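Supplementary notes for students who missed Thursday's class. We covered one full example, reproduced here. Read the sequence, then the structure, then the short commentary at the end.
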Amino acid sequence: MPTTSEMNETTVAVVQAAPVAFDVCRTLDKVRDLTAEAARSGATLTLFPEAFVSAYPRGLDFGSVVGSRTAAGREQFRLYHESAIDVPGPHVDALATIARDNRTYLVIGVIERDGGTLYCTVLFFSPAGDFLGKHRKLMPTASERLVWGYGDGSTLPVFDTEIGKLGAVICWENYMPLLRTAMYAKGIEIYCAPTADGRERWVSSMQHIALEGRCFVLSCNQFARRSDYPPTYDSIYGDDPTTVICRGGSCIISPLAEILAGPNYEEETILTATIDRRDIARARLDFDAVGHYARPDVFQLIVDESKKSAVSFR
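Structure (token representation):
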């Protein structure tokens, strides 16, 4: 029988790396290798960055300005659309196999293709290789809105797993107070924050969320050089293969905002930490944002989790 400590303590990993941009098959090979490396470190949960499969198109403008688009920019979008994945689909099946082979909860950012629209999405898999579900980014930031659609309330899951209640909020969604409140109300304990933000002040935001939600926060960003993108990548970063275009900053934070691992701004790496779910109850002695510290007589939040479709057939 497992001891109480073994039931409450688990090792989690955040993978700070870059995909093989715009190449799904080679990116999945890298996911397989990195997940296996995390598993060898004892990880029962492995988190990958935002848009890891297969590209965060940093520095691209897709030939678009207000009132005008170019043929070259449309071709860039076609290539991006081609490198996205269908959910469900064969690439999702491949990720499920990776989770099963390594007996880990796998949480990974992907670019999801649904018809003519792309979504920034996080997929969740169990150690048994089951696809648990997905979260589509509700609000793309700035120029992301040019190439990514909007999610809706139907993909805001928090999964009740044997290692804790698990969910994800993507990048600057974490600056949406009402979204955070909804996740706290769902009882999130392992709060995954895949991101593209490598600023040092991002870590302060993650500490604030951990302290506000009294949960463990796992933030995961890419460490990417120009060489991780194809030679034809016509971006603002030039052609020097050594240029760092995303510097990471991944970290793991406790429910009292203590930094358990990271941040790392230097290299591709896998950060791990052992977390103890009992620390969540300890932290909630004096604060529970949606419990004894809430004032429902003054403030209330209504969350619409219905699926919004442009066309309905009856």
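Commentary. The two ends are 53 Å apart (CA to CA). Residues 1-5 have pLDDT under 50 and may be disordered. If anything here is unclear, bring it to office hours.
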